[in-house]
Fold this protein.
Amino acid sequence: MRLLIDGYSLVFELYLLAHCPAATCPMEWLHGGDYAEFAKHVNDFFGAFKQSNILLTVVFDGCTDPKKHSTFHVNMHIS
């Protein structure tokens, strides 16, 4: 099974989970961040899907310029 994930939303959610799990805030973010702990949350997240044999594809895509909407829709139907 494959799952497509919006990358920016994922980063935001993982940050929230790492920053304030269960309404507590054990991680230090004010003085440089606790990157090792955040990395653990990221690895746990992806590891859970891997154990379930789910292949994740994370897409980091920005907004499209309104002038490019017609081209975007054409390309979306081609692929």
In short: The two ends are 19 Å apart (CA to CA).
